[in-house]
Amino acid sequence: MASLPFELVSPERLVFSGAVSEVIVPGAEGEFGVMAGHAPFIAMLKPGILTIKGDGADRRYFVRGGFAEVNAAGLTILAEEAKPAEEIDAGALAQHIKDAEEDVRDATSDEARQRAQRQLDDLRQVALALHPGAPAATAH
Amino acid sequence: MASLKDLRNRIASVKATQKITKAMQMVAAAKLRRAQAAAEAARPYAERMETVLGNLAAGMLQGGQAPLLLTGTGKSERHLLLVATGERGLCGAFNSSIVRFAREKALSLIADGKQVKFFCVGRKGYEQLRRTFPNDIIELVDLRAVRTIGFKEANDIAAKILHLLDQGAFDVCTLFYAHFKSVIAQVPTAQQLIPATFEARAADADAPVYEYEPDEEEILADLLPRNLAVQIFKALLENQASFYGSQMSAMDNATRNAGDMIKKQTLIYNRTRQAMITKELIEIISGAEAL
């Protein structure tokens, strides 16, 4: 299987670096998979779960804010926040959701409100995916 | 002449001081290592960000319609100087050298008839700048309570600057910090944040033609504010490393000075003691002779 060099970088550190077979990226306009030999591509991220498929079990990371860049050298993801999905605790996520709710409320223009709403929806989905049992994070 | 007891006290107090400076030096060395690692870990992100933005920006500038962060307001009348210093002293000339650099720049701007405002990150810089420019400091961000600088702090500062830009409070924003060259060399540096500058890249024939999702404008509009935060974050980390480097060498000097002082004082102490013994002996002998 052709391998894809992949790097996941957050401002604080290099989170993941290595060759993988496929990465599923939560793009702003829909999730997409990247395998070796992908066309050069730059896409924004939405808050979501990034899945790395390699030799062993799939690894899942929570990513938020940033973009993905694919070129001949491989895939690079710059995310403002990138953590293994297991390390995400419900409290932190709930805080993000609360912040997003405030953004929706405080938005001054329609466009900003739409953007904030989209963020909020994405975050709620993540919460649901990670903690299916948890009380559906402060749904109004 | 000081009595023996005075001398003993003086030596003891210098010794105590030396112990403190020695401990501070070792703490600074340990923290420096951590700060340096953090600064290095942050580098790949900032570099990649710059590469991608450079590619995008080159296209945008030709196409017109570039966002405010990239082009600025087109004027350079009002300057915002973002001065990042430390929160603590006892670090040699670290804070002063950044402040001096910023102050010189500000004075030359004022001499050119421009308006200058300050945005201080770090209490020390604020305290020093307040003396020269009492009415021009519009913001102070205090990071004293922050143990390790995270991306969040940088993001908060960036948000404040963006807010000021939205209000039209300034045309050009420049960041001042100390670039960490090595443990003994920290260079005060000025970096223009707004309008953003990217190294002009020669059009590379081999450069891949990217597809964008969503389109370039939207990506750029999202990335530029992020880049601001990233640049500030990088500067804060560099500053942190510079601070500890500076503190370490300052404390090393202090320890050495204390050592010299102890040596000198001990010499005086011993001489005085000898002189007293000799004096007593003379007194006893001459007393005995008189009998």
UniProtKB/TrEMBL annotation, chain A:
GO CC term, one of those recorded: endomembrane system
Ranges of residues in domain ATP synthase F1 complex delta/epsilon subunit N-terminal: 6-82
Stored InterPro entries: ATP_synth_F1_dsu/esu, ATP_synth_F1_dsu/esu_N, ATPsynth_dsu/esu_N
Family of the protein in this entry: Belongs to the ATPase epsilon chain family.
Function as written in the Swiss-Prot or TrEMBL entry: Produces ATP from ADP in the presence of a proton gradient across the membrane.
PANTHER family linked to this entry: ATP SYNTHASE DELTA/EPSILON CHAIN, ATP SYNTHASE EPSILON CHAIN, CHLOROPLASTIC
Protein name in UniProt: ATP synthase epsilon chain
UniProtKB/TrEMBL annotation, chain B:
One function term, GO molecular function aspect: proton-transporting ATP synthase activity, rotational mechanism
Membrane topology classification: Peripheral membrane protein
Similarity comment: family membership: Belongs to the ATPase gamma chain family.
One Pfam family this sequence matches: ATP-synt
Function: Produces ATP from ADP in the presence of a proton gradient across the membrane. The gamma chain is believed to be important in regulating ATPase activity and the flow of protons through the CF(0) complex.
PROSITE patterns: ATPASE_GAMMA (PS00153)
Subcellular localization(s) per the UniProt record: Cell membrane; Membrane; Thylakoid
Principal subcellular localisation of the protein: membrane
Protein's recorded name: ATP synthase gamma chain
Gene Ontology CC: one annotated term: thylakoid
Domain of life: Bacteria
HAMAP family for the chain: ATP_synth_gamma_bact (MF_00815)
Gene Ontology annotations of biological process type: proton motive force-driven plasma membrane ATP synthesis
Keywords per UniProt: ATP synthesis, Cell inner membrane, Cell membrane, CF(1), Hydrogen ion transport, Hydrolase, Ion transport, Membrane, Transport
Self-association state and partner proteins as the record states: F-type ATPases have 2 components, CF(1) - the catalytic core - and CF(0) - the membrane proton channel. CF(1) has five subunits: alpha(3), beta(3), gamma(1), delta(1), epsilon(1). CF(0) has three main subunits: a, b and c.
